[in-house]
């Protein structure tokens, strides 16, 4: 058993007869009244995100987990296939267990969180950022640079990202996986 002081991003807990992963949290100490922790929880079975508030000192039932490195192989519709990088065993996960499936290209190394009680994979964590090639974007309009103007671009995985006007097709860009936002252009 853990308490609210142990809450951190990525912690898996049992709550309402399901296993949830904490994706956001905020400790709040109001001037009047008791402290509490506001959390955003993602179900590892359904992918549904809920908001919940725990009072300070509340006991939470944490799940013991292990993390392993897996390589993304391919996807068939909603099913994504991964291979363990050490023993080459393969697993298949549903799309809603993934954090950012539209930013994952074949060969990407990800971290899979596995429940130690039944060895069931709970969720997949992407690296902090990924480098993808722009496959389609409109050319920037000259003279439209008075502000931080952006334009939509499609990357090799099919995801759409807003990029600065100077990005062209064929450029490789670094994308932050948590927010799905452009970070910088990558030179070869």
How would a crystallographer describe the biggest sheet?
6 strands, antiparallel
CATH topology of the largest domain: SH3 type barrels
Q: Could you tell me the strand content as a percent range? A: over 45%
CATH structural class of the largest domain = Mainly Beta
Please give the radius of gyration in angstroms.
Answer: 20 Å
**CA-based shape:** flat
Q: CA-to-CA gap between the ends?
A: 49 Å
Number of helices: 0
Walk across the major sheet and give the strand order: 1-6-2-3-4-5
Low-confidence stretches: none
**Helix and strand string, N-terminal first?**
EEEEEEEEEEEEEEEE
Proportion of helical residues = under 10%
- Total of domains: 3
Mean pLDDT rating: 84
Domain Translation elongation factor P/YeiP central: 67-122
Family: Belongs to the elongation factor P family.
Protein name: Elongation factor P
Subcellular location: Cytoplasm
How does this structure look, described?
With 188 residues, the protein is mostly beta strands. The protein folds into three domains: 2-62, SH3 type barrels (Roll), CATH 2.30.30; 65-125, Beta Barrel (OB fold (Dihydrolipoamide Acetyltransferase, E2P)); 129-186, Nucleic acid-binding proteins (OB fold (Dihydrolipoamide Acetyltransferase, E2P), Beta Barrel), CATH 2.40.50.140. Helix content is 0%, strand content 54%. It has strands at 2-3, 12-15, 18-28, 36-43, 49-55, 59-62, 65-76, 79-84, 90-94, 109-115, 121-125, 129-137, 150-155, 160-164, 172-176, 181-186. A six-stranded antiparallel sheet has the order 1-6-2-3-4-5, with no helix packed on it. The protein has a five-stranded antiparallel sheet with strand order 9-8-7-10-11, with no helix packed on it. It has a five-stranded antiparallel sheet with strand order 14-13-12-15-16, with no helix packed on it. Strand 15 and strand 16 form a beta hairpin. It starts with a strand and ends with a strand. The model has no long low-confidence stretch (mean pLDDT 84).
């Amino acid at each position: 058993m853990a308490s609210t002081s142990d809450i951190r991003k990525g912690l898996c807990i049992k709550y309402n007869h399901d296993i949830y992963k904490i994706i956001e949290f905020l400790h709040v100490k109001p001037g009047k009244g008791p402290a509490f922790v506001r959390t955003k929880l993602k179900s590892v079975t359904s992918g549904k995100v809920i908001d919940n508030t725990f009072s300070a000192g509340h006991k939470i039932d944490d799940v013991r987990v292990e993390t392993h490195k897996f390589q993304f192989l391919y996807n068939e519709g909603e099913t994504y296939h991964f291979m363990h990088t050490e023993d080459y065993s393969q697993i298949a996960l549903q799309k809603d267990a993934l954090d950012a499936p539209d930013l994952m290209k074949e060969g990407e190394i990800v971290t899979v969180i596995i429940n130690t009680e039944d060895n069931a994979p709970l969720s997949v964590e992407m690296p902090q950022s990924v480098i993808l090639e722009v496959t389609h974007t409109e050319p920037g309009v000259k003279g439209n640079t008075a502000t931080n103007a952006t334009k939509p671009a499609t990357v090799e995985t099919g995801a759409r990202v807003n990029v600065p006007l100077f990005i062209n097709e064929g450029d490789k860009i670094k994308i932050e996986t948590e927010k799905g936002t452009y970070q910088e252009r990558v030179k070869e």
